[in-house]
User: What shape does this take?
Amino acid sequence: MDRDRDDRDEGRRRRTAERAAAALWNGDRASQGLGMRIEASGPGGATVSMRVRPDMVNGHGICHGGLVFALADSAFAFACNSYGDNTVAAGAAIEFLRPAREGDVLTAVAAERWRAGRAGIYEIEVRNQQGELVALFRGRSHQIAGRLIDD
Assistant: This one.
């Protein structure tokens, strides 16, 4: 009996996360304009990908760090909004570990590490198509007034 209830609760949380991601995506012209795609979303987590286009390469011939940050930040946003509450970034930091190049497909996987009250901590790994770690991002979220979706 408890297992059935747990399965129903997990299904409800997953549907909430998917609806929240769709609602957030609908207004997210920045992520859309950069060619990002939501690969997966769930309670406290999200996976977002982006191909490095020629217009994303800097003077060193590598992907501009701000665009790697933008990808990680978008995954962070979908993860911390996955409960349906309006949630924004309160702070973030990134460590660049290896360059990304034109044509690379970068995937950012966000995972909730801690959440209490109106705050949360999320860690995001950005990897290339070979699975090599490109960047590590850590974001701190803050819940603001209102809901992203209706229950």
Residues 2-147 form a domain with the Thiol Ester Dehydrase; Chain A fold (CATH 3.10.129.10). The beta strands are 37-42, 45-51, 85-96, 105-116, 119-127, 133-147. The helical segments are 2-27, 29-33, 65-80.
